[in-house]
Amino acid sequence: MTELLTAASEPARLRELSAMAVIGTTEALAVAGDRQLAASIYREWLDHNPNDPLCYVVNFNLSVMLSALADRQGARIALLEAIRLKPDFLPAYINLGTVLEGQGDRIGAVMTWYDAVDRLSAVNADALTHKAITLKQLARVLSAANLHSNAEDVLRQSLEIGWHQRDILHHWLSMRQRQCKWPMVQPVAALTRAQVVAGLSPLSLAAYTDDPLLQLGVAADYCRHDVGRPSRSFAAAHRRRSKRHTRLRIGYLSSDLREHAIGHLLAELFELHNRRAVEVSAYYCGHQVDDALHHRFKASADHWIDISGMNDETAGERIVADGIDILVDVNGYTHSARSALVAMRPAPVIVNWLGFPSTMGSPYHDYIIADNIIIPEGSETFYSENVKRLPCYQLNDRRRIVSDHVWSRSEAGLPADGTVFCCFNALNKITPFTWQRWMRILQAVPGSVLWLLDGLESQLQEHAAAAGIAPNRLVFAPRLNNSYHLSRYVLADLFLDTSPYGAHTTGSDALWMGVPVLTVPGRSFASRVCASLVSAAGLPDLVCASSEAYVARAIELGTDRRLLEEYRRRLQVGRDSCVLFDTPLLVASLEELYRDMWAEHQSGRIPRPDLTNLDQYREIGAMLDRDDVEMSEVPDYRERYLEALADRNAFSMIQPDPRLWQGPSAGRRKPVSRQPRH
Description:
Among the domains are: 235-395 and 584-602, Rossmann fold (3-Layer(aba) Sandwich), CATH 3.40.50; 420-582, 3-Layer(aba) Sandwich (Rossmann fold), CATH 3.40.50. With 678 residues, the chain is of the alpha/beta class. The protein is built from 29 helices and twelve strands. Helices cover 48% and strands 8% of the residues. The relative contact order is 0.08.
């Protein structure tokens, strides 16, 4: 290091070292691990070469070095100097925005990036690349600040620059969904409506349409293009295992072992596992937190491994070294998932459970855990994984903390009289079809109100007014600490579920607090979870057979106080004995499933996913989708796919698959009966 410093600093004073030479020297120092020394050399060179035409580049490189040293203020000063010296140097604006964001100045970051976008008037490859990067940064920060409309506009601009950006298309559609902008799907840039539907992310698609074949096709496409092929496979390492350990080693991979909806469901799991039979390892991949639930998970796992700072290969090596038999992917295709790590197959058996309510469409998820209501017999065809069933799919924490605060209706902004319908599902789960049902219910139940989470007040009030409902009949609940949120549930009379992505944790919360839940299941996983919860809580008669039955039942309950009270009484009496809240039973059943999976692995009987023709199902589903048709209400669902497959096969032969298409005769035979609705 000393030799490099001597070689660099003396010529700098004599103005003999070129900018490119000092960059080469400092990069060598950085690679060797001495960024402090490299930064010192940059500064010294700048002091002695203030008029060099490449000073802006050296300042930019100095800012990169200082950012790596966590000196954000120094990096900010260097970037401002680079911009002063060369106002059209766009990378400096991009990085300056990132530095400002890191300093907590989100407004400054956004203004800097907007400034960069305004300067990008030239139409050339570099300008377009810089503009796309800047818009992406802008959208990320605007979205994090809940400025969804601004983020949506920025993302649309980015798509117009390059419509092939899959992640931008996913984000743009998600922004529209979060704002309840209907119709959500629109042609954009060079993309047709069908291409946009096919470009939905798997999670957004689950909330958009009740079409499990389309969901399967989109999941497989997402796995292929967005996760990609693994850089490494650990499959051979499992075959070389010499000695079996006495207990089954289960690994849970999750970013949500903290104050999170999934965390609240899983909190008792580690505590109830039978340690004579099971050894529990938690692989945490979320952001750093310090909440009570997070500490509870850490205390109850046999082994807690934080892999958030590890790359996928290092994390995979750790899971292999730990000898995990079954790895449970609790994220699926959700935020902070480590799908590329799972693709390396770091355990012999891989399971999709709880965090993502759909199929993964991957070649490496062997099993999906559900129950007889969520995936009834005959509907396994919608899943790439082998189906295993619990008595009830969703675990619950019986130790959840409920505030002892006693709420009044006036304190919550609710009317003293009248039926309070509520839905505390995320607002992005509201579709135009669900909204129309709710407005019909409010119309038929005088004095009733609909109690929702806050965040989209003006947008939803406009939708209500358009349906002839006074906007003040919508009441918005502010976001609260979970214990306080739970305690205010008792003010509600009836929880109205959404479709096709229904209540999960929110449904359990309502039922735990004694609030009856009304739901109508569809065909897909996410649309059937709430029916499972309501049935497991002992109220199967609140699972409706159709959307019309859902509306009629809600009106009946909304106008019959005694009937509502009877449902409350049944929930209160049965809470400690119903299957939904029998967490020890569900954990024991889960362990039994694990033993079955491991036995199938040992005997070589694990069915591997068959992904044949999933691209065809994705394309057909995207073309069948319409704004004015709710797919769950389509009676000839499978037949529509069969007809489309037959048409395609007439043009170009399609190989048979284990789902619908078994050859040309499949398109002409008597249609298969559709999946039961409940």
